[in-house]
Amino acid sequence: MNKMENHKKNNPTASETLKQLISLGKPYWGRYFILCIIVAVLSLTSVALAESLRRIINATVDGNMSGLVSGGIFAVAVVVVEGAGNFAKTYLSGMLEFKSVAKLQASVLSKLMKVQMEDVEQYHSADLISRINDSAPAAQTGINEKTIDMFGNILKMVFMLTYLLSLQYMLTLGTILICALIPLIMVPFTRKLRAMHEARQQVATEQQTFIQDAIQGAEVVRSFSLATKLKEQFLNRAKDHLRIHLRVTRLEAVGYNLPFAVILGGLLYVLSFGGYLVIKGNLDVGAVAAFLISFEQISQPVARLSSLWTELQSSMAQSNRLFNILDLEEEGKGITPQSQDYNPVFSDGFPSIIFEQVGFRYGEGANVLKGLSFEIARGKVTAFAGPSGSGKSTILNLLMSTYQPNEGMIYCGDTSLRDIHPKDWRKGIAYVSQDPYLFTGTLFENIAWGRSGATREDVMSAARAAGIHDFIMTTPQHYETHIGERGLTLSGGERQRMSIARAFVREPSLLILDEPTAALDSHNEELVQQALKELMHERTTVVVAHRLSTIRDADLIYYLEDGAVVESGTHNELMTLEGKYTDMVSKSMDKGTLHSQREEVGA
Amino acid sequence: MNTSNSNRLSFGHILRRLLQFVRPYRIGFIVAMLLLIAKLVMDVGFATVQQLFVDTITSADMSALLRLTMICGIACLLILVCLMLQHYFRFVVHFRMIWELRANLFDKSNRLPFRTLQSMHSGDLSSRNNKDAEKAMSMLESVVFDLAYNILLCLVSFLYLARMDVWIALLALGSGPVVFLSGRFFDRRLRVLSVDILTKEGELRGLLQEILQGMKVVRAFGLEGPLLERYVERREQLNILQRRRTILSGLLWQSSAFVNSTVMVACAALISYSALQGNTTSGGVLAFVILMGRVQWPFVHMSQTWGGVQDALGAADRVFAVLDMPSENDARTVEKTTPREMTEKDHSKVTQKCSSMPSRDQTALSIQNVYFKHRSVDGGESLLFKGINLHIEPGETVALVGPSGSGKSTLVRLCCGLYEPDEGSVSLFGSSLHEQLEETRALTTYVPQNPYLFSGTIRDNIAFSSDGASEEDIREVARLAGAEEFISKLPEGYNTILGEHGSTLSGGQRQRLAIARAFLRQAPLLLLDEATSALDNESEELVQQSLDLLMQGRTTLVIAHRLSTVRNASRIIVLDQGEIVEEGTHEALMVQEGMYAKLYSLQFQENTGEEEVEFVS
């Protein structure tokens, strides 16, 4: 799919990603600073602990009782400071992480609600969810935790090495050399590792997509007995995942264990070379012993450093996925949206909408609309009819400003739609689709979503107008009754009436109806039709339908074919024309839909 | 939904169940465990090696030093290789086990009764499969590798230490459990918190899913602001929970580390004191101090790991809560051969057999005295069917008519086992849906109103339920369903990949694919939620013809939207509030002047004579 291409296009270099990653941390510099100080103190305490142990041992060797006591007290003090410091660090970095991750996630979500619909539709929702839920935290902790940790561990190493230098420079120099080997071995792996992490995340996401699809398609899965087959497919997919995972693990197995090589090599070096020096008489045993204890302390930051490096690669791979989203272009670029309640277009009545030579295609596909020109008159009902694929739904997309025309202009009064921010434009629109989309929550909430600040009375009168009030009163908690995911526990007609109530509450200037009754049986259609009539009353309405009952009463009907208007006029005008529209109507007669029967009588 | 609290399983129980997932990978698992010894050697052996070195140095034996260095160097290399292998095996096995658990959970979620599924949010279920499964499995990792290793390390170090000074060793060892047990104070809270956090995460995922899938409505109604606010607010609730966990686990970690460090310093002081008394050498003190850390540290580590185990237990509670739910066919007396070992081939065999069998002698569909309650999300119940009876003979076409909410869709769902009756039974062609769900269900084809398509190619979407379908079969059914034309216009034809839920297709195109599916299935009983409503006129005509073809020689129960369906039906059932109020042919029912006549005239009020004309023309 397209997202795969996106992937290849968007393969920024490591430094770019790192730069972007660091930019995520900008708002938190102050906290980072505090954390760095704590981390610096903590790295000092590890030196102090080594020193206190050295004092205790020295005191033992010298047989110095008071030295032993003071050494002991010093050690306890260090331990207390360390414990407190560690807790403060854990707490602060934890807080920082939760806060910044939540903020990042919210900003990704908000970005997704702003970018072009076209771009959003390229991704499966499970993919986007994984980017918000998995990639965002990974990227943010990459910058918060991993970099600070890295800083802390480097600092620890520097302190330790300085301390060791002061003890014995010959031994230390060799140790430094050995430590320097780590980056030399690690760096060549890095690039490969990051690419693999990204591939692995991609596979994992596809798996989540698969799971989500299957769970949401529960009805089909059961009625077609797909469980066995799906499990098989699941395991096959897991095999792909495993293949990549094996490769990553192989590299990681080396990466995570390299520090042990350094530690073991370092110890061996200290013991053997130190021993050599002792035998030569250049060093005493006590010094080697003290050095050894201190060296133990160095092993921890060394180990942590190189595993951090590996983890950072994973973070960077994840942040790549995140920046793919954050870099998408937003809707209404270059136009500043007005404040919440500002409503420029609709303040003095809603003007007519004029399409002028509008051409449109999805992506690189063929032209769906070909130089289309027509007018949607204010206060009137305009209907679009035509075979599927004639571009009816595309017109609605353009009207809602979810897509922009490739050619031509759409005017609302004198203003081009391009100059109105989509968010402002949509403030006056209500949309009722074929498959109504409801949210988990109460019935009240679902209607109230129509307009922010809708009162209880507003909601109730909307429900009455939509003919759903009576139904709501039969539910156990009336308006406070919870409906499940997407309202699927309601029947199709109930859902549709809910969505009409939502449109009522909105008090729109422009009403967009996309085959509002197509998925309903005749009885429900009857109810919905009545509600719609009420809603359409004296409102500029655009309706797409192939049910005669829905379009027959329109003030103007455009018959579309292949992205162009073939016929237009009222129902009666078109019928006398005896053209394509008449054909369509008579065909729908033949089928004998309950409704077309009745409609025909009126005509 | 939130069964977590009532469903707290014991640690042993969870461990046992998780361990079952090891079985297929036990070799890798055991290898990984054995290789841990390399780590043990490294951790414990070093103290010994250091002492050896110190002693060699003290005795100023240069050649011995060289020899020792060589041996140790080789040993180091070996250990290193072992460590790498250990890492590899451990994480590969771990990974496989997670996926095994996920596969089981996935399979389970596909076998849960539809009603159970309706009461859960798909986002929550997806989240359990993703995060919770991984976290639950991490318990095995923590327990087996970390805890077991640390106990072993602790024991070995203790033995070594005890050789030097039993009393101090005992002191070090004895303080360990104190560290460990003091940490247990946090266990219960951590586990509860873990469940809360994961539940919240599931809820958040559900919210995200709804926002993203309903993006068009979100935009059209300008819901960006309020929904973002809602997300931020819920996320903040999650933050509060996470903060609590950070504080708890921070206290756990630091308190155990602190106790540990204090004990360590105290022991160091004691051993030094004893050295001062002349009981120990300075080399001994050195080894002791290093080793004591090794006795102590495991306890600290164990205490902290145990905190992590609580987290995992919380996740396991949520995972097993789903795994322990009854499956669709659990309640039924099914022989062991189903459903796992029954492949799709068997299904089609059953189908073949059934569609060809002379089933004239058996009732195609028989609903006997069925009671059914609807359960709302809030837990409220409303009785829909109160002992409903319905029998359909083979070859019949029965139309289901009734006002909204009369139970038409529910009745159809009962017929293909999506819903299970609370009382009474449903049987198809003589076999009870209740007792042999999979086999009996294979006799039905259900075409729902809103066809669900999976992300994938058009071909897969048509053929997913029939393994052996050939390319010709697929093209044939696509043609029959009137889908061939639009498919051939798509750039990739049958290989076109559909967007989420088939979003790249129009409603009519989606329905035609669903009908193509039904053609391929060839089951004798057709359950139709009259599915041509979203089609435009031309394709509707086409599809109508193919549906007629599909109904030929089959038994059909159809929720009728169309007059022609009603009139051609051999019988019309009128449902009202869960009861069959009228039954008969169109003509007979019209004469009765009951509910059907009322429904009918409501829709044809202005037109009683003209409809005849329509049908003639």
Automatic annotation (TrEMBL), chain A:
Predominant location: membrane
KW Kinase (keyword) present: no
Domain ABC transporter: 353-587
Record-linked Pfam families: ABC_membrane, ABC_tran
InterPro entries registered for this protein in UniProt: AAA+_ATPase (IPR003593), ABC1_TM_dom (IPR011527), ABC1_TM_sf (IPR036640), ABC_transporter-like_ATP-bd (IPR003439), ABC_transporter-like_CS (IPR017871), P-loop_NTPase (IPR027417), Type_1_exporter (IPR039421)
Membrane topology qualifier: Multi-pass membrane protein
GO cellular component: plasma membrane
Domain named ABC transmembrane type-1: residues: 33-314
Residue stretches spanning the membrane: 32-53, 65-88, 167-187, 253-279
Keywords: ATP-binding, Cell membrane, Membrane, Nucleotide-binding, Transmembrane, Transmembrane helix, Transport
Location(s), subcellular: Cell membrane
Molecular-function annotations in GO: ABC-type oligopeptide transporter activity; ATP binding; ATP hydrolysis activity
Name assigned to this protein: ABC transporter ATP-binding protein
Organism: Paenibacillus anaericanus
TrEMBL record, chain B:
Organism domain of life: Bacteria
One term under GO cellular component: plasma membrane
UniProt-recorded Gene Ontology molecular function terms: ABC-type oligopeptide transporter activity; ATP binding; ATP hydrolysis activity
Natural source organism: Paenibacillus anaericanus
The keyword tRNA processing is assigned to this record: no
Name of the protein in its database record: ABC transporter ATP-binding protein
UniProt-listed InterPro entries: AAA+_ATPase, ABC1_TM_dom, ABC1_TM_sf, ABC_transporter-like_ATP-bd, ABC_transporter-like_CS, P-loop_NTPase, Type_1_exporter
Limits of the ABC transmembrane type-1 domain: 30-311
Keyword ATP-binding: yes
Annotated TM spans: 27-53, 65-89, 143-161, 167-186, 251-273
Domain ABC transporter: 365-602
Gene3D superfamilies, A to Z: ABC transporter type 1, transmembrane domain (1.20.1560.10), P-loop containing nucleotide triphosphate hydrolases (3.40.50.300)
Membrane topology, record value: Multi-pass membrane protein
UniProt KW keywords: ATP-binding, Cell membrane, Membrane, Nucleotide-binding, Transmembrane, Transmembrane helix, Transport
Chief location bin: membrane
Subcellular locations according to the entry: Cell membrane
